[in-house]
Amino acid sequence: MASKARLHNIDESRLTVTKPKTKAVGIPAVVNSLKISLEQMASGKAHFTGNELEFIKVPEGRLVLQTLRSHDQYNTTIYGKDDRYRGIHGGRRVVLVNEADIAELGFRDGDMVHLISEFRGTERRADNFRIVSYSTPKGCAAAYYPETNMLVPLDSVADTSGTPTSKSVIVRLERAEA
């Protein structure tokens, strides 16, 4: 433990360890690094920093899609086709879009569309989604994953964590042929 403490420039004389409440064999003691950090600061208070907001440039006629789970979904395991949180019943191939965006894009609630993401000159498609008028912010849309996973570019990731940008995929809607 001492070598790890030195690695993070922690004053080992002030190190505190929380012992586990279980008697199970092999469970290590947990170091409360937040407490250590706060104790080392002169004020004894946390110091927060902020980052500048970076706004996504969305081309005209496009929406920012976020992928989301339904209430009966655990990660990618789907237990049903209803989403009582959003009032969706009997299917998951829906795209939730602001009413004003639906009209501006020339669609109506209930129309069938294909979702096409565009990133660095490459297009990805997810076909046959029903538009649902929903109270999303203007310029935004939402659809369930894993049905829309193919729209997320593999090389579009967060700067630090490397997490896929599943909450900010630029898409256009194309009318599906009846």
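(the above was protein one; protein two follows)
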Amino acid sequence: MLRRRFVVFMSEEGRAETAAARPEEKSKGRYLFAVFVGVPLLIIAVVVAVFSLFAWLVGEKRSVGDYMAAIHSGTAEKSEQSASGLFDYIKNSKYWQTMFDMTQQVAFNREQFLQDNPGFAAQVLVAFEDKSKNVKTRRYLAAILGLVGDRSASPALAGALQEEDPILVRNCLWALARVGGESAIADLAPFTASDKNGVRLMANFSMGTIRDPKVLPFLKQALADNEHPIRWNAALQLVEHGDHSGEEVILALVKNEPHPSAGGARYVDAFGRMNIEDDPNDPGLVTAEKKTACRAAAVEKLAKLGLERHSELLRRVSLDDPDLIVRNAALRVLNPAASKEDTVGQKR
């Protein structure tokens, strides 16, 4: 096959003209790419963002009546989802007034909420007492009754403590403490010695939230519980009642020293795991975040027990503890006037 080679000889002027034309060609290429690719992609992104914002705003605007209607008439799954949504709606109190009025309620105002929604507590109570409903739905309804704090719900909540679902029982224990009343302590008392760790933890925690000296014997008894997280909770709660019985436990949390019976592991790591038999997905205080939160709370409670007596320990913790959040907690109690921006690892 005959091959031909074509050699093009260009003058110096020709080369200069070609070189000058290249930037213009590149500029045209960028322009075409922007027009036919970039702009359409940008339009699509904006449309998706606007649609998502619109859907989010509309979704957040569901009323209490909408949730209740779905709980009463929906399928088991729909009812559960609506009960969960209603719980979050009340707990967070974050709903948008209108699409363009983004005024957010900062905190749950129980009195105002019940005034705006007359008969709400009674409707939730009726739904909760309907045992034909999905037990998961009733778990959320029990928590909602605790949030609104209507004492007329006490008998139904106390009756549900005899049901078989441990998570429902735990929610009812918490709700009873929130609702209060003369019978709350008596209703919770038997469950502070439950053989189920999760139920026992919740019973003792809920007991501690009741500001009544009658709860002190139960909290002191919990200081000797087989499960250390239950001891920690009791010690922290006792401080809020002005009782120093749990000081030794709080000191152990703050120091978090290697424990000889745990192969040298630090105290919180050695004893922070608690098996929740009724909820295998709940590891108790096994997560690093929960352990840190517990120790930071212990630092604050230790200061309440005696800042002057424990100032040297707290100073060491503020300087040397490997956990930044715990160090910052110690700095705050040593210098309450300091702002959060003055703590370690944070900028002013």
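Reviewer note on protein two: The two ends are 80 Å apart (CA to CA).
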